[in-house]
Design goal:
The complex is a heterodimer of chains A (346) and B (806). Chain A is an alpha+beta fold. Chain A has helices at 2-18, 22-33, 38-44, 54-90, 109-122, 137-140, 173-182, 224-239, 292-297, 314-322, 329-332, 335-338, and strands at 127-128, 134-136, 165-167, 188-197, 209-219, 245-252, 255-264, 281-290, 306-312. In chain A, helix 1 runs antiparallel to helix 2. In chain B, strand 37 (654-664) and strand 38 form a beta hairpin. In chain B, helix 11 (431-440) crosses helix 12 (466-477). Classes of the chains: A alpha+beta (346), B alpha+beta (806). Chain A: Keywords: Aminoacyl-tRNA synthetase, ATP-binding, Cytoplasm, Ligase, Magnesium, Metal-binding, Nucleotide-binding, Protein biosynthesis.
Amino acid sequence: MKERLQALKEEAVSKIEEASNVKEIQDIRVAYLGKKGPITEILRGMGKLPAEERPKMGQLGNEIRAIISDKLDEKMEQLEKAAVAEKLKKETIDVTMPGRPVQKGNHHPLTRVVEEIEDLFIGMGFSIAEGPEVETDYYNFEALNLPKNHPARDMQDSFYITEDILLRTHTSPMQARTMEKHEGKGPVKIIVPGRVYRRDTDDATHSHQFTQIEGLMVGENVRMSDLKGVLQTFAKEMFGQEREIRLRPSFFPFTEPSVEMDISCFNCGGEGCSVCKGTGWIEILGGGMVHPHVLEMSGFDSKKYTGFAFGMGPERIAMLKYGIEDIRNFYTNDVRFLKQFNRVNQ
Amino acid sequence: MLVSMRWLEQYVDLGNHTAEQLADLITKSGIEVETVESLNKGVKGVVVGHVVSCEQHPNADKLNLCKVDIGEEEPVQIICGAPNVAEGQKVAVAKVGAVLPGNFKIKKAKLRGEASNGMICSLQELGIESKLVQKEFADGIFVFPNDVEVGTDALEYLNLNDKVLELGLTPNRADCMNMLGVAYEVAAILKKEVNLPSPSVEHSDESAADYVSVSIENKEDNPYYGATIIKGVEVKASPLWLVNRLVSSGIRPINNIVDITNYVLLEYGQPLHAFDYDRLGSKEIVVRRAGDGEKIETLDDTERTLSSDHLVITNGKKPVAVAGVMGGADSEVYDGTQTILLEAAYFNGFVVRQASKDLNLRSDSSARFEKGIDRNRVHLAAKRAASLIVELAGGEVLEGPVEAGERTVEEKSVSVSVKRINRVLGTDISENTVAEIFDRLRFEYNNDNGTFSVLVPARRPDITIEEDLIEEVGRLYGYDNLPATFPYGEGTPGGLTDYQNKRRLVRRYMEGAGLYQVTTYSLTSPKKNAFFGEIGYNDITLSMPMSEERAVLRTSLVPHLLDVIEHNHNRQLDDVAIYETAKVFLTKQEKVSELPKEEEHISAAFTGLWQEHSWQKEKKPVDFFVAKGVIEGLVEELGLSDRISFQKAEKQNMHPGRTANVLLDEEEIGFVGQLHPEAQSEYDINETYLFELNLERLLTTNTEPLEYKSLPRFPSVTRDIALVVDEGTEAQAVLNIIEQAGGKLLAETRIFDLYQGEHMEEGKKSLAFSLRYYNPEHTLTEEEVKKAHDRVVDQLKQEIGASLRG
């Protein structure tokens, strides 16, 4: 009897091992452990055994049942796992195929540069002022110390609509407009971004419409060294901390003294290259101390107040910063151009 | 202004500075040196040669066989094709092995069987611009004067080893439009002396006053006029040194008299004019305004019509020169001129500028008068020219000059204190340093306890106020030495205004929604402005447009966005979604006399595919609802969703069935729709959708404050209804009825289906809505929902005859 039980066990175990699906396992369970199964049948014949062997044989029978049952469970789990694995395998995708594109646009490069500059100056306590693009001759020229017949008006040939109304040639008219609003009381701290217009034939480096950012600070203690400090901060933030600046004397009718600011070339670091035309320096902006006539005309006492002003061209800055070779690109808006400005810069 | 280093050296000791170093110093102290040009364009191995013999080439009519002594043992044979080559000439010879501009190497050659060992050069071949070559050498080789030494460096004689600085002069620094001015500037920078020429003239006993009288009609126009008479001159070519000076300054040599006036113009900045006295036609000079329509033939053989805005020099009857601009052809100096009337005058810059502008005639002379010349140098310059004429053309200077007006003016005084200088610059410059800087500039001053009263020389008319002196001190002290500080005591909170903040938000929203920002021109054509037909505003037209395309200010952003779509379409870029925020310019005036209204708009254009995932074969083309959806998202962002509505509209150039006006609080603020297929084919682009909104209205309309609402505590109940309504019934009308009838309990209504076509009665359509009911007080009861929902259904039946779809 014992031998038969052992033989059954081995037979069952080997069948379990051979089983390849859940159904077979279920069949084996019924076949061996069911009420009509061989083990039950053998144990039923236990009555013929001597009494002292019966418990032993019963125990053996139960042990074998337990072994087969465990084996069945174990195999069952194996098969279930394999079935899941099989299913997942069938679901496999090629993860290198491209993802679903997210529809998105981005800033025009000029807006990008303008906002960057705005934020920089906001950080230094400046507000943003905006003014009309169609201006009076007074604000565009006269209030900026450019009376009629002034030779410097040659420098900026303008689009006139009438004798007294024109498209602004710079954002500087907002100097006068803002100061007038302040009614002779400082401080005034603004930057003025905006579109401006000049009679230029459009080509790779000229555009009849372009962008300018003007800056103005008027107060009781504003010094030229402050202009240098503010512009130095701007240049380093905008073009890199390792940039150096240099101020060169220049001339603008609305500032005195006037300067132009160069930064050390970010391409060659100052050694001379094609970007800086071999000089090691790149001209970035013009500025100076607000001319006393300009202060007075806008209602500020030039003995009490001093100020600085500066102006720069975002097109030029963007062209230098990104290596854009043709200013017309900003205005033709080829999407292959626009899309290049779709990410952070660092 | 072109400044030859060699010439400059005549006035200032330049020490060991190279042209480049000097350029850097000049740039840093105030005048931008734009270029440093080497006159030697890479030329090597060119020497002076002596043409020993010159015969015709045996095998070529137009070639000459020359034997040229170039200082070597034997003369060399050179074949020369120049028509003016001749025996006995001293010429520039590029030897075998020499290099000419463009890295052109001279090699031994054979021409029609004869050896040629070198090349006799023209000035052009040595790198001199054609426009600067004297007429006599323009079409052939250059011939030296006889006193040059054979075998020596020809470039040296031609001054081609010189370097030239090109100054980019700002309008205030007209004082540096002449060599003396540059000399003062450079001397101040280098802390050196200025060596000025000291011309002296011996007069003959004859008086110029016997030859001519001078009168000025208006002293404003012409404060001073001096006429010097020089008799017995010989007009001929100038010596090489003078030719070289002019060429290095970019002026073409003509003859000794004209060259001298040009030389003095360059040296002193004083424009001079030499008349042929005998051809003047009278013995008087009268300076007056021209009559309207009065004519003169100028030196360039062009007849000019003048007006009373122009100042002329006359012989008492007719104009002989346009003052300060150009002389007349009739009295021009020519080979046979014997007596000269040399004009040295001061003309008002505005008048000269006007004439120069009106006649479209800019000359070296007018450029200087316009910017202002040194009032106190006029007479000196005349003396300098007269002495040079006597030296180079012979003749004698008559006692004079004959003058009208004041020869000189008093110099003006401007004051500044050291304290003010330091306050404006933010520096700590000492009184001694300030004094030293004024000394370097050769300004006379009186220092009263730190307050300097500076006598400003007439050569510096740009210095009129305190700040001008501060600039002089600052720039020579050096802006490199200026500290970099931060403003103090002027704390201000910086930041964006609400409007600016919202505009940035709008841009970010638009880009997040999938549109690229563009920038287009404000100026457009009248045709494009009429794109939407009559809009109730007039064109604002430039008085002198550069082209029809850019003649008026735009009243809509749409046409230029379509240009962008077209540009991209022409480059096979057909899936484009773009937007712009910019101003439009509006006036009701016929003729603009007030500033127009400037209104900021936002406009967008969509064409092609809106979404595409190519390998998954999903393609969604743009349609009306894409454009509308972008607007709905935009107004949601601005908190204005409830106040915006869309109303079917017709608009020129827009699809009549697919265009809507956009209303804010019942007021029209823009439109959305499809470009009319005809306009589309006119542009030759694909199907395009557009919108344009008054951004300013959107950004200046305040929304309700953002308030938090508690999250729902009870479940809501959703009921769907499918309605059959007339085809023409607008969804919005149905929604309005539902929302009104649904009452407080109706929390949300959504359209989830639109059906037309099969199984639907002709002229009908089906709309399906999902209605969500919610009661914030308690869990909704079945009765509550039923009551509300029945009311909705009843109302729909009553008002628009809607029936429930089975």
